[in-house]
TrEMBL record:
Domain called Guanylate cyclase: residue spans: 7-122
Domain of life: Bacteria
Keyword Transmembrane tagged: yes
Transmembrane segments: 191-209
GO biological process, one term: cAMP biosynthetic process
Signal sequence, start to end: none
Cited PANTHER family: ADENYLATE CYCLASE, TERMINAL-DIFFERENTIATION SPECIFIC-RELATED, PH-SENSITIVE ADENYLATE CYCLASE RV1264
Pfam families in UniProt: Guanylate_cyc
Full protein name: TolB-like protein/class 3 adenylate cyclase/Tfp pilus assembly protein PilF
InterPro entries listed in its UniProt record: A/G_cyclase, Adenylyl/Guanylyl_Cyclase_3/4, Nucleotide_cyclase, TPR-like_helical_dom_sf
Length: 721
């Protein structure tokens, strides 16, 4: 019988039975949604795992009692914020109890008094509150910014000895209790959940981002950056002092990984490597860099590699005074590169008074590797892949990724890069790799399967994008929370999360994460302009949407912001009744859509890519495009409009019924009706939508009573009577 010491969190829904009696289906769905989008990702973010679900409750285990309490507070704050916007009878409120004690390990389950006490403490908590044992309070009282109010000795059911209990004060200042060592207020749920997975365990100054208010404007962003009291840092590109200048990829890779590792340290804000890269090979003044990026501290240095010997010089500068806080030299072998990175992280944390109590290497947390040869091959591939490469160079990058994965089959980031490469493949790149379109799609999912074993942020980014296309934005949001937690310094994680939230019907939250993207990477881009415009459009704020969408560079070689952004822009102008702007941008939109070779310029193409969860969101977009004169169907459709079925007629005719003839194109388990279109999410492809017409000359025997019209194809079919 195995035993171990664990922190156990028990949570239970208040008034669950009464809610189920009033609205069984709705209550079940609300609770399931909260578990999937809040409880599961938040518990995972704090290094816990759920080992038992009990209808309206759960039990979770944590290796750190600090993590358990922080998680409980984040959950209660998030629930309070979400409950504020829903009616009283639809609110999900929970009680939480936490205990630190010995548990019996049996497979994935946990038993014993350590678990039982947590469950009983949960029953003592107030709705929306947290009750902890004395062991828990004593362990964390000097480490967290929460007060603890004594509840005295409590006699718990089926527990022999009384247990001293404490109520967690979520707002210690209001309760008249002094704040512990950390005096920084926790920030609200819709950004707190995104920041900070522990790379090195919790430090003394575990401060979090403070809330800031949209809209996404540089002035507002600057003001809110000043409100963030955490130490803030930028890692400038290290200099390559090696005789072989071609080894610059090693220096770039080291800088990028160092940025990511530091970004995972709780209590430290780190600007993205993308923002820092603008200073590469430039003479800069510390004060100017600090002011431009909104940070106080600057880390700079150099790397020299001769054979297997490495020397790393690094120095930390206070941008406000330009004074040197710390400087150190690290010597070692290339085979020690990961240990050297860890030393730099620990040294910087020490210089900033962040006391680290443990550390993990990159192989443990982000789909990384501890194999230096695999790491080097991966960096060579990334150096080629990230520049505007030729098809032959693209193929070379793929071979480097494959080499890295062969050297370390557990190298999740390499597998994710291969999946991305095959997803990005076009005709010339496919020819260079001698891979067909079908072969490329096969490889995308093949390598995603490998990457899933050791997930990295780039793995989650691609998975979320694919889930959105398959009308599964709930899952995409949960996936992107994990990506942000793994690398809080990567703006692509925040933009990907914003995209998932926009399509999930949560544009107000999407806007917050776009602010976060601009914080780690000041200076916006076309993708962010589009997502910001979509977030405003999703709230019916057409003037604000136009403001962002007009900033997209229509001359850029990147087609996607133009393709998406122009559709939203034309629709927004149509809603505003501005016919001149509609006419001006409609022609540009048609040209961009024709360039896609995706079936011309029509609303079937729009619905293929704008896969909203809520009917009102796609309706808002299509209504504007209707007003702008964008046709619903391809020009080649010659069927009589009077024979076209309405949405209600499609729903009655097709959903839940067997079809004969061309019915193989319908996957009824994923079909739905939006406006007057039938849509179907095709697994491992994406969404497709079409119109249904009656065939006046059709008969059941010939199985051609109806015609389904899609972007390129038509299918005749008859329903089974």
């Amino acid at each position: 019988m195995d035993r171990k010491l664990s922190a156990i969190l028990a949570a239970d829904v208040v008034g669950y039975s009464a809610q189920m009696e009033r609205d069984e289906a709705g209550t079940f769905e609300r609770l399931r949604a909260r578990r999937k989008e809040l409880f599961e990702p938040e518990i995972a973010r704090h290094h816990g795992h759920i080992f038992k679900l009990m209808g309206d409750g759960l039990l979770a285990e944590f290796g750190s009692v600090v993590d358990a309490v922080e998680c409980a507070v984040s959950l209660q704050q998030a629930l309070a914020e979400r409950n504020a916007s829903v009616s009283e009878d639809h609110r999900i409120r929970v009680r939480i109890g936490i205990n630190l004690g010995e548990v019996i390990v049996e497979g994935e389950d946990r038993y014993g008094e350590g678990v039982n006490v947590a469950a009983r403490l949960q029953q003592l908590a107030e709705p929306g509150g947290i009750c902890v044992s004395a062991k828990v309070a004593k362990e964390v009282e000097k480490k967290l910014a929460f007060g603890f109010e004594p509840m005295g000795q409590q006699k718990l059911k089926n527990i022999a000895e009384p247990v001293e209990a404490f109520r967690v004060l979520l707002d210690p200042a209001v309760a008249g209790k002094p704040m512990a060592v950390n005096r920084h207020p926790r920030f609200r749920r819709n950004l707190a959940v995104a920041i900070g997975v522990l790379v090195v365990a919790v430090c003394l100054a575990a401060a979090w981002w403070r809330p800031w208010e949209p809209p996404l404007r540089p002035t507002a962003l600057t003001a809110n950056a000043k409100a963030d009291t955490r130490p803030s840092l930028v890692v400038l590109p290290f200099d390559n002092l090696s005789d072989d200048k071609a080894q610059g990829y090693l220096v770039d890779g080291f800088t990028e990984d160092l940025t990511t590792e530091l970004a995972r340290v709780p209590g430290l804000f780190v600007v993205s490597r993308n923002a820092a890269s603008t200073y590469k090979d430039k003479e800069t003044k510390a004060a100017d860099v600090a002011a431009a990026l909104g940070v106080r501290y600057i880390l700079e240095g150099s790397i020299r590699r001769v054979g297997d010997d490495m020397r790393i010089n690094a120095q930390l500068i206070d941008g406000s005074t330009t004074g040197h806080l710390w400087a150190e030299r690290f010597d070692g072998q290339w085979t020690d590169v990961f240990a050297l990175q860890d030393k730099v992280v620990v040294s910087i944390a020490g210089a900033l008074k962040l006391r680290l109590v443990s550390a993990q290497g990159k192989a443990d947390v982000a789909g990384g590797t501890r194999n230096p040869a695999a790491y080097e091959a991966y960096l060579q591939g990334m150096e080629i892949y990230n520049r505007r490469n030729t098809p032959d160079e693209f193929a070379q990058a793929v071979r480097f990724f494959q080499q890295a994965l062969e050297l370390d089959p557990n190298f999740g980031a390499a597998a994710a890069s291969l999946a991305w490469a095959f997803w990005d493949m076009d005709g010339p790149r496919g020819q260079a790799l001698t891979v067909s379109d079908i072969g490329a799609l096969y490889n995308v999912y093949k390598y995603l399967g490998e990457a899933a074993k050791h997930p990295s942020p780039s793995y989650y980014q691609l998975v979320a994008s694919l889930l959105v296309r398959e009308h599964r934005s709930d899952e995409a949001v949960a996936v992107m929370f994990k990506a942000v937690a793994l690398d809080p310094s990567d703006p692509l994680n925040y933009v990907g999360l914003a995209e998932a939230l926009n399509f999930n019907g949560r544009p107000d939250e999407a806007r917050d994460y776009l602010v976060a993207a601009n914080r780690v990477d000041p200076g916006s881009n076309d993708h962010r302009h589009y997502q910001a415009g979509l977030a405003e459009f999703g709230q019916g704020r057409f003037e604000e949407a136009v403001d962002y969408l007009e900033r997209i560079d229509l001359q850029s070689p990147d087609p996607w912001p133009k393709f998406y952004g122009l559709q939203v822009l034309v629709s927004a102008y149509a809603h505003l009744g501005r016919s001149d702007q509609v006419a001006a941008y409609r022609d540009r939109l048609r040209n961009v859509m024709l360039e896609r070779k995706d079936g011309g310029a029509n609303q079937l193409v729009t619905q293929r890519y704008f896969v909203f969860k809520n009917p009102a969101d796609i309706g808002r977009l299509l209504d504007g495009l209707d007003k702008a004169g964008l046709p619903e169907l391809p020009e080649a459709v010659d069927l009589d409009a009077k024979d076209r079925l309405t949405g209600s007629e499609i729903r009655s005719l097709i959903l839940g019924r067997d079809l004969r003839g061309g019915g193989a194109w319908i996957d009824k388990s994923t079909s739905w009706v939006q406006q007057n279109f039938l849509c179907d999410a095709i697994p491992k492809v994406q969404t497709t939508c079409g119109a249904i017409f009656r065939n006046p000359a059709g008969t059941p025997e010939r199985r051609n009573e109806y015609t389904a019209v899609f972007r390129f194809d038509r299918f005749e079919f008859s329903p089974v009577k």
